[in-house]
Amino acid sequence: MGYLIQILAMTLAGLTALVLLFTLYMALTSPIPFLYNIRSVFVRWRATLATIAGIALVVGVYVSVQAMAVGLEKSSQNTGDPRNVMIVRKGSTAESSSQVTREQFKFINYLPQIARDDKGQPLISADVVVLLSLPRKENGGEANVLLRGVSPIGMNLRPQVALVEGRWFTPGRREVVVSRRLAARFANFAVGDKFKTGGKELTVSGVMDGANTAFDSEIWMDADESRALFDRENYSSVLLRVDDPAAGKVLIDRIESDKRLPLRALPEVDYYNSQTKTAGPIKFIGYFLAMAMSVGAIFAAMNTMYASVGARTREIGTLRVLGYRRLPILASFLIEGAFLSFAGGVLGCLLSFVMHGYSIGTMSLQSYSETVFQFRITPGLVAQGLIFSVIVGIWGSLLPAIRAARLPVIVALKSL
Amino acid sequence: MAEANIVTVRKLSKIYRQGDINVTALNQISLDIKTGEILTLMGPSGSGKTTLLHIIAGIDRPTSGECRVQDIDVTRLNESQLADWRNQNVGFVFQTFNLIPVLTAYENVELPLLLTRLGRKQRRHQVNTALELVGLGDRSHHLPRQLSGGQEQRVAIARALVTSPSLVVADEPTGNLDSHSAQEVLSILQSLSQSAGKTVIMVTHDPKAAAFGSRSIHLEKGELTN
Amino acid sequence: MTIGSFILKNALRNKRRATLSVLSVAVSLFLLVTLLVALRELTIPPEDAGAALRVVVRSRISLANPLPARQRPIIERIPGVEAVSPFTWFGGNFKNEEGMTFAQFAMDPKLLRPIFGEAKMPEDQYEAFEKDQRSCILGKLTAEKYKLKVGDRITLASTIYPATLEFRIAGIYSGTIDDRNLLFHHKYFDEATGDLGQVGTWWVKVRSAEDMPRVTTAINAAFANSSSEVRAETERAFQLSFISMLGNVKLLVASISTVVVFTLILVTASTMSMAIRERFRELAVLKALGFRRRELFAFILAESFGLAVTGAVLGAGGAYFLYNYGNISKMTNGIFITFEVTPKIVGIAILVATGLGIVASIAPSISVARTSVVDGLKTLD
Fold first, then answer.
1. Which domain holds residue A392?
2. Residue C103, domain member (yes or no)
3. N or C: which end of chain A has fewer CB within 10 A?
4. Are residues A320 and A231 part of one domain?
5. pLDDT of B156-215, one tens digit each?
6. Residues A368 and A285 both lie in one domain
7. Which domain holds residue C199?
């Protein structure tokens, strides 16, 4: 069954490519002036406009939904420093479900590949990650927020994060710094606010900005304080800096090859690159909607093009009498359909730009905490949207175009 | 000899099937048309005159018989060959003008030339010459709906002439025109034959139009009557 | 000939266009129903029969935070509580499969019937499960998906705990709203993880519905100001709490549905307007024959309605049969479970189709009213 669908999809893609190539070739070589098609499109402007708008909305929805997936991936991919190595428990898929014991941390601490700062301190930090269920700003529901207990070195290892309001937390105090993006979404996240979690009260001392990285979806507090507060004996993850990639590789190999250490070491960048699972279902929704809506759009384009062919039957006859062959006439209507929906595609991409940069949040399927990201419309997405619109146009106009090309000259001429 | 007869029609028949009945549109017609003459085809509706015109012009096919135009048997050409042949050898003028409404007069006239290998400059030259010839040099950027009926038909004539075909066929060219415009159109067709040596075949109902021709042929029930 | 048959004949005159119109309505309504059903399932998760008498107890910090095992006797002593079972999410990875597979929970097998009564198995399987500490039971859907049967062994590596467990399948249950989970002995879990003394959640069976509010309040109060504060709530409230976690997704699906409906109305209305505009000549003829405007409007409306309703019956009806009689859980790989097309959703679809019929007839009606007989007779398309 799945195999059959695959074959069908590939045949369809192949056919589309063929028709597309043919149309493109004819568009470049056809004797029928392109202007003729463009002007004809706008003669029946009401139906044409409805079709263009329909295709625009289909493309707009597709591009917007995909822009979410891209935004989510981008925020993950923005995160991390190429010089950093992340260590989590083997088998865990995210920091929030990882554990590193104190003995393991001590062992890692003595690895010679770790870079040191000017004072000779090794650049290594063990973090604690705790999920807190906290109330949202609007309509009362709760969602998980990722709290990171971080050491001063851990903060230095993440230079993307900058304080934008208030001050950093004081070690030994129950203070947190929340990200600006989360502050917009959760209750009591303004500087000076207090909120309770599991009977413990925390004070917001500052607001930070993660520069569109995964840190935009975190709140930070002092590592030791958070371990005491949430009764954590172990750490969640270890982040360290190496001097150069070669040293990083040695360190990773050293940890991975040690059978006694149930740990996984990988470049921080790679770790965050793998945290994009949530984008999967979003992409799926995008494809599903695009598929379903494009069927409707193809019907619409088909109707418009059939009407167009019907209204211009006599013009087609005249062209044939003047010596035009069937193929250019076929191509002419294909080009017209492609142009029509391309216009829709352009409009759709413009529409989707309204969403660009807009912030949304949902539960990550890996960390199970609220992850905030922005709609990101990239040139690649715009290209996808435009290609998609042209495909809709070509499939929608293929049958009407064939009908136009097959009209017998005499019948076409006699038509009213 | 070839100069004498541009069109030779031999035993041409056309039978349509309409449901269960066969309708004979043309019955064993033989006809010669001389180069440079203006031949008018007359007859009542359904007499087969338009069918004969269409076969000579290569847009319809006979059931049997032969139709040679300049020594080419048009009944034997295939669809694509016919298209090219029409483009190079025949100019069409319709009763309903059949201009493309979204194209200007200039662009309408240019349309047949786009199928040739002519460059842009040469096309412009030919289009302008044709438009001058029909007296519409100043209207080249008007759309059909901005022109009067007579002007539209003159544009159509220019379009028929622009490829310099040896044969111009006209199907009731004055049928949709007032008498003044009809007069203009007919004089243009006449001058084509007299000064440019073109052969013109014209189907008409109008005896006044027929008077412009050098020869007139009557059809009735698919047969020549005179 | 009656007016009715005249309308029908007319509507079917251009079969291609009528078909295209009906199909585009059908596709759009199918999509609309699908989105509405998905939205409903996201916001109102399906409920088990026994849920009304179950309370879920979790850490006040978050669901991810463990609870101490010592809380169990305290909860058991609360009046109105019939049974308490630990319920710990194992987060196991089966065959290293990416994406959704199925969830596994460590619990107390003796309390399977008292607390999760709707999970039905043959008697011998209950016994086998209780007896063998390394056994598990598996939902029917998962068993079918992976072609597993009683007696098979499966191995799961946890993504949360440093443990990999091997189970013998003692039974395959069915009868819950979502027959996919794997349940196993909490003792086995404790052994494998080194007796942490922790559980994920407590699931509590309450004696009667009247006891519910009192019991939840009592559980919450029992651990207030302790180092492990809890949140006790009905299973329903617990399920609903996940919706809030979805964040903007709900709003997003809702707004996409709106855009889809709008696109649908736009495109379909224009398509149908075109189909009706084709009748202009007939309409002009009818006008010439003495039909009044009112009758012509009725004529247009009837045709527009006919197209919309036929499309709606095809699209919404198709969705109804596919989702209510097809195995949606299998089709979506378990993302959606019941995917029920409710009467309300059918009602919305009918409403949209009706609106569509009216909207699509507006433009042609105006044109007909404006156009004189003579102009109408001249209309080409």
1. 12-77+277-414
2. yes
3. N
4. no
5. 999 999 989 999 999 989 888 898 999 999 999 998 888 888 999 999 988 888 888 889
6. yes
7. 61-228
Q: What is the mean pLDDT of chain B?
A: 89
Residue ranges per structural domain of chain B: 35-61+77-218
Instruction: Please indicate whether, in this complex, the C-beta atoms of B114 and A317 are within 8 angstroms of each other.
Output: no
Q: Are B65 and A3 in contact (CB under 8 A)?
A: no
Q: Which of A261, A293, A324 is the last residue of a domain?
A: A261
Together in a domain, C92 and C13 = no
User: What pLDDT score does B176 carry?
Assistant: 85
Where do the DSSP E strands lie in chain C? Answer: 54-59, 67-68, 81-89, 92-94, 104-107, 135-139, 153-158, 164-173, 182-185, 198-199, 201-206, 230-234
Residues of C in contact with A92 (CB under 8 A): 159-160
* Domain B35-61+77-218, CATH: 3.40.50.300
C19, C265, C267: best mutation site toward chain A, by most A Cβ within 10 Å? Answer: C267
- Neighbouring chains of B at 3+ CB pairs under 8 Å are A
Chains interfacing with A (3 or more CB pairs < 8 Å):
B, C
pLDDT of residue B3 exceeding 70, the answer is no
Chain A and chain C share a number of CB contacts under 8 A equal to 167
Is B114's CB within 8 Å of A35's CB?
no
Cα gap C168→C281, rounded to integer Å? 77
Tell me how close the Cα of B4 comes to any Cα of chain A, in angstroms: 26
Instruction: Say whether both A350 and A237 belong to one domain.
Output: no
- A319 interaction partners in chain B (CB closer than 8 Å): 100, 111
On the CB side of A57, CA atoms within 13 Å amount to: 23
Report chain A residues whose CB lies below 8 A from the CB of C60: 133, 197-199
What does each C-alpha distance from C111 to A171, C176, C186 come to in angstroms?
46, 16, 12
Count of positions (residues) in chain A: 416
Q: Which residues of B touch A409 (CB under 8 A)?
A: 59-60
The pLDDT tens digits for C55-100 are: 999 998 888 888 999 999 999 999 999 999 999 999 888 876 655 5
Q: pTM for the whole thing?
A: 0.80
CB contact A320 to B (< 8 Å): yes
